[in-house]
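[worker-b] picked up task from shared queue
[worker-b] task type: protein-ligand structure
[worker-b] ligand name resolved to fe (ii) ion; SMILES cross-checked against name lookup, match
[worker-b] sequence length check passed
[worker-b] input payload:
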Amino acid sequence: MPADTFVTKLNEQIGNEFAAHQQYVAIAVHYDAETLPQLARFFYRQALEERDHALMMVQYLIDADADVVIPGVPAPQHSFGDIVAPVALALEQEKRVTGQINGLAAAAREASDYTSEQFMQWFIKEQVEEVATMSDLLRVVERSKDDPMEIENFMAREHQGDQGEDPTAPHTAGAA
Ligand SMILES: [Fe+2]
Ligand SMILES: [Fe+2]
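[worker-b] inference finished, payload out:
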C-alpha cells in the first residue's frame, strides 16, 4: 500500500491535472474562435496529455488498491487580453505543476514509500519538457505578437505531429 499522505496528495493532483486539462481546452477554444487553428490544435493536444496524466495517477491508485476520489475542478480562465496571455498562463501553470509534482515525490520519500517516489520520476521528467516547450512558445508569441500568421507558421512547422508514443509512460486507466 502506498503511504496515506501520498495517496491524499495524489488524489489532489488528479484534480490539478484535470484542472490543467480544462484550462488547455479553454485556451484552445479561445484560439479557435480567433481563427488561429494551429495554436488551437496544439492546446487541444496538450489538454489530452493532461487528461492522460490524471488517468495515469488513477491507474496507479487502482493498481495499489488505494482509494480514488475524482475531485471537482475550479472553472478555467476563458477570456484573454491578447495572443500572448494564454501562453503566459500556460507557462505559469506548468511551473506550478512542477512544484506540485516535486512535492509528491518529496511526500513519498518522507514516508519511505519508494515505490510511489519512483512512480513520480516519469512526471518529473515530463514537467521539465512541458516547462521548456511553453517557455519556447512564449518567446515565439512575444516576438511575433503583431504577426499571428508567423506564429501559426511556426506551430505548423515545429509542432506538426508532436508526441509519438512514449514507451516509458505509466499506463492510463481505461487504455487498451
Ligand atoms: Fe500534467
Ligand atoms: Fe502539463
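[worker-b] attaching auto-annotations
[worker-b] The chain has a mean pLDDT of 96.
[worker-b] releasing lock
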